[in-house]
Amino acid sequence: MNTRGLRSQLKDSVPVTGLCPQAGPYGVQDSLRRGFSSVKNELLPSHPLELSEKNFQLNQDKMNFNTLRNIQGLHAPLKLQMEYRAARQIQRLPFLPSSNLALDTLRGSDDTIGFEDILNDPIQSEMMGDPHIMTEYKLGIL
Amino acid sequence: MALSNVLEPAVSGFNFENSTRNIVLENGSEEGKIKAPTPMKTGTTIAGVVYKDGVVLGADTRATSDEVVADKMCAKIHYIAPNIYCCGAGTAADTEKTTDMLSSNLTIFSMNSGRNPRVVMAVNILQDMLFRYRGMIGAHIILGGVDCTGSHLYTVGPYGSIDKVPYLAMGSGKLPAMGILEDRFKGNMDLEEAKALVSDAIHAGIMSDLGSGNNIDLCVITKEGVDYIRPHRESIYNYKRQAKYKYKPGTTPVLTKSVNQLELELVHETVQMMETAGSS
């Protein structure tokens, strides 16, 4: 359930991580792996909802934790975030789809259905990432 | 097939990869602009009225796609819960999908808690969902239902705005329908009066709006149950086929016929016993 945004919480909410090209190891655009970049593509989102959808879960969590902190004190969101971090670590290998059951239960999204469950389900995707490259990227070796 | 240039797994939900391409196509290259196909809208008249024992919802049955009638018997009154129904105007696919998801969410809730959902829950879920997508989902919805707190009628706009009123009309034919409702609505009507009022309101919308037409559907919701009357009033311009257009068997002459036997050999046979005895 979306909390009705309290204006005071939004003053330090998540800065929009835009579409800036992910820097490679030397801080420069990694053309080999991500292809050529164009400034117009990266500065402005092509669809008005693209940025807000990308950061939706993050912003929701921030608002919820802020409200919780104001109502119940600092310890409540700290404890919850610790549980979130623990649950987020229960994953399969990076190229396999994970069910995220513990994380869903904590978030409360295990008994709601949204467009994330119907559209673009990673379990049913036809393509798979290359296992070696994805594992190396996750471990930071790449 | 494994892709070698993907470093992180794909995110579920809406995918905006093609929007840059679409913008380039619409603004046109040197050859000319390419217009995207428009989605099917329902160009509708929908109306709802709260009466003494419950709610009456009504809708026409025409779905248009630009200037052609795409569907003459479209069902615009959707099931949400056993005691809640909703009418949807706007883009046909958007209303269908949104109401389906709303219905699924409420079913999960009733299974979890063992209670019938309330109309305010449906309204809140819909409002959150539509506001999150900033009106890009073109669904103008009238929600009506009877729950433990009484009978309610709400309208939800595509941006998430709601309005709670005893009588409502939405869609492209809402102005003529609202005229009839404003003129003849009174509180605490009885069933026949309420049905006649909604039916006349939809009829006014059908007569005065190009996007509405064909039959009128009604849905009466009370504490006891739901009466889905489809169609309540049929249009007098219903076209009936004059003759059968199927081909008789034997119309196409058979020139040659050949039968090939498939040679199959039994390679391996296993028998697995099923546990059919009753459990202890």
TrEMBL record, chain A:
Signal peptide: none annotated. GO terms for cellular component: cytoplasm; nucleus. GO terms for biological process: proteasome assembly. InterPro entries: Ump1. Belongs to the POMP/UMP1 family. PANTHER family: PROTEASOME MATURATION PROTEIN, PROTEASOME MATURATION PROTEIN UMP1. This is Proteasome maturation protein.
From TrEMBL, chain B:
It holds the Pfam family Proteasome. Component of the proteasome complex. The keyword Transmembrane helix does not apply. GO terms for biological process: proteolysis involved in protein catabolic process. It comes from Carassius auratus (Goldfish). This is Proteasome subunit beta. The active site is at 44 (nucleophile). The proteasome is a multicatalytic proteinase complex which is characterized by its ability to cleave peptides with Arg, Phe, Tyr, Leu, and Glu adjacent to the leaving group at neutral or slightly basic pH. The proteasome has an ATP-dependent proteolytic activity. This subunit is involved in antigen processing to generate class I binding peptides. Component of the proteasome, a multicatalytic proteinase complex which is characterized by its ability to cleave peptides with Arg, Phe, Tyr, Leu, and Glu adjacent to the leaving group at neutral or slightly basic pH. The proteasome has an ATP-dependent proteolytic activity. Keywords: Cytoplasm, Hydrolase, Nucleus, Protease, Proteasome, Threonine protease.
